[in-house]
Amino acid sequence: MNIFRRGIFLLALGLGGAWILRTFLYEPAIVESASMEPTLQEGVHYIVNRWVYHVHVPLRGEIISFISPIDHETRYIKRVIAVPNDEIQLKNKTVFLNGQAQEESYVMYQRAKEHLDGDNLGPLKVPANTVFVLGDNRDVSYDSTSWLDPQTKQHLYFLPYENIKGRVVKL
Predict the structure, then answer these.
(1) Which of 24, 37, 79, 121 could form a disulfide with 90, with the two C-beta atoms 3.0–4.6 Å apart?
(2) Residue 78 catalytic?
(3) Is residue 133 part of a domain?
(4) Domain range for residue 59?
(5) pLDDT tens digits along 12-33
(6) Does residue 35 have an active-site annotation?
(7) Has residue 45 been placed in a domain?
């Protein structure tokens, strides 16, 4: 009987440890679309560091996992382009951050010669406690350039901090 209790205790300890690890520290994520290619491939598993944003706020260039500001359920993975007090502008698919054109070697355009909604935007100032995010595969990404509030049909350009679940870590 002592071995049985010990087995139950070890099982409970393992399950409790796994729950703490997944809830507060790390969790798995899968890239479900091509919106982050070529950086992250569709169908590949990654780890989300859930504790990092308890230490510091999201930084420009970080790839984050977050809950949609539209339906508050769907998980997305995108890159932080602008942080609070930044001025963001897109001109003919080029990102201008605080007036400076950005060199983004990680970006891909599948429809580079087409003019799409979101190719020209702003300038917009990023409010406190929010970020502006884009997918690396810009022409197929559902991100800050394309979100619309379902009730008002107004653009939602900024992702609130509270929607951010963590930073994506490559394995």
Answers:
(1) 121
(2) yes
(3) yes
(4) 27-169
(5) 666 666 666 566 566 878 788 8
(6) yes
(7) yes
